[in-house]
Structures are given as structure tokens and as C-alpha cells.
Amino acid sequence: MSVDSIFSHIAWQKYEIGSVPFPLGADYWPHGAVAQAFGILREGPPVPGINERAVFVIDKQGKIIYAQLYELGEVPDVEEVIEALRGLH
């Protein structure tokens, strides 16, 4: 999920990453409401109005079981996230 619009997500898939087999969430309006609720909406420099790069894994009861922040240019550790997902049973 990002604060980008649905149209931005469509263009990102079309021109950069290719189609993905899961839905992308747009936290576009009200702008950044979800990012703000999770405490990851950037309000200051260098790029205010975007969300931090983060991964959250949430179980069926709504409890966050994994949360990790990354630098904007950093790629999340996929194996760590997969391990957290395995714990969801």
C-alpha cells in the first residue's frame, strides 16, 4: 500500500515492475490516512507526504505480528517476511 493513486499503481506495473498477482492498496484519499494510523507518513523533508518503506504482517485477529521499517531505497528482506507469514497458520 502506498499513498500513490490507483492510476499511479497501474502505471508502475505497466512500465516498471510488470503485473503482480495480488491487489495493491492506494492510501490516496484521504491522503495517507492508513500510513498516518501506522505512524509511517512522512511529514517533513526530504519528501513530505509519502509513506516510509515498511512491511507489516497482521494476523486474522488484527494483531501486528511483524513490523519492519526500511530506508526508502532499501529492499525488504523477503525471507524475513516469508518467515513471519509462515507463523500465521
Short description, anyone?
The chain has 89 residues and is α+β, with helices and mostly antiparallel strands. The protein has three helices and two strands, in the order H-H-E-E-H.
Walk me through this protein's architecture.
The chain is α+β, with helices and mostly antiparallel strands and 89 residues long. The chain has 3 helices and 2 strands, in the order H-H-E-E-H. It has a two-stranded antiparallel sheet.
Characteristics:
89 residues; alpha+beta; 2 domains; two-stranded antiparallel sheet; 3 helices; globular
Strands, total number: 2
Strand order across the biggest sheet?
1-2
- Average pLDDT reading: 92
Low-confidence regions: none
Topology, please?
Blueprint: H1 6-17, H2 33-37, E1 53-58, E2 64-70, H3 78-86
Antiparallel strand pairs: 1-2
